[in-house]
Automatic annotation (TrEMBL):
Keywords: Membrane, Signal, Transmembrane, Transmembrane helix. It comes from Brassica carinata. InterPro entries: HR_lesion. PANTHER family: EXPRESSED PROTEIN (PTHR31474:SF1), HR-LIKE LESION-INDUCER (PTHR31474). This is HR-like lesion-inducer. Residues 1-26 form the signal peptide. Pfam families: HR_lesion. The chain crosses the membrane at residues 118-138.
């Protein structure tokens, strides 16, 4: 069962590790292709937040944002493979921040092709987020169950 769990985690995290590796290889001096494609989506997200909340987000260098994404996916992925809750939390943080920015279906009309493509990717990303929450919940419930069993007093036979 442990082998199946390890293989499952390795397959799950391959999405994050391969993405981090690809972004790392293309990073360059300016953050690479990832930073260039992220800039318009991030600007649209900032505009959307400002319109709906009245709050301005501080300016962010795309190179730093991409580097942070690479670090979260890379470190989080490696830790997650070995069953670390910290790795799951790092990947969860990445998904929670990146999903609404990258898959901005809310900026398109329902009739547009982009809406369906982005909405599909958004829901897939939510599924990954759900799987991470499930992993964290299972980790915590197993830990809690072990603690309860250890604390239970043993009945003495008379």
């Amino acid at each position: 069962m442990e082998l199946a769990s390890f293989v499952g985690r390795a397959l799950f995290v391959s999405v994050f590790l391969l993405s981090a590796w690809q972004e790392f290889n293309g990073f360059g001096d300016d953050g690479g292709r990832a930073a260039k494609s992220l800039r318009p989506k991030f600007n649209a997200f900032v505009s959307h937040v400002a319109t709906h909340t009245g709050q301005q987000l501080p300016p962010v260098d795309m190179k730093i944002l991409v580097a942070a994404a690479i670090a979260l996916k890379g470190i989080g992925g490696l830790l997650f493979v070995f069953g670390s809750s910290l790795g799951a939390y790092l990947l969860l943080l990445h998904q929670a921040v990146a999903t609404p920015i990258l898959y901005d279906f809310y900026n398109y009309d329902v009739d547009k092709k982009e809406f369906s493509q982005l909405f599909s990717k958004f829901t897939q990303s939510l599924a990954l987020l759900g799987a991470l929450l499930f992993f964290i919940g299972m980790k915590n419930s197993r830990r809690h169950g072990r603690q309860l069993r250890k604390k239970a007093p043993k009945a003495k036979a008379n």
